[in-house]
Amino acid sequence: MKQYWIIEDHLDGGLYIMPEDTPEDELEKVQKAIFNDKLDNLLKNMFQKKKESRKYARDFIEKHVESVIKDRERITEKEILEAVEISKNVFVV
């Protein structure tokens, strides 16, 4: 059974779901991209946006998360079809 982290967004409300088995190297890539020597400038730019500061920060973080996710190995059509066949034998409808 796959487990997930449920993360509450205290700034804007809402919940985010993240697979618990996210590889450590992917988390480190995102962390290094955000918390680096350019963080001071990022924070200055973010606070200058005032009303849009949360959106600015969210867009910045999402950009780095998406760049890591896009580097993942793609699931092939064959793998999808195999999973469907396996599920037919495992789950009774």
Level of helix content?
A: 55-70%
Largest sheet, if any?
2 strands, antiparallel
One letter per element, helices H and strands E, the order comes to EEHHHH
- Tell me the distance between the termini: 20 Å
Key structural traits:
single chain, 93 residues, mainly alpha, two-stranded antiparallel ribbon, 2 strands, 56% helix, elongated
Describe the structure.
This protein has 93 residues and is mainly alpha-helical. 56% of the residues lie in helices and 11% in strands. A two-stranded antiparallel ribbon has the order 1-2. The chain is elongated, with a radius of gyration of 18 Å. 0% of the residues are buried.
List the helices and strands and how they pair.
Elements lengths: L3 E5 L6 E5 L4 H11 L4 H10 L4 H17 L7 H14 L3
Antiparallel strand pairs: 1-2
Concise summary:
This protein has 93 residues and is mainly alpha-helical. It has helices at residues 24-34, 39-48, 53-69, 77-90; strands at residues 4-8, 15-19.
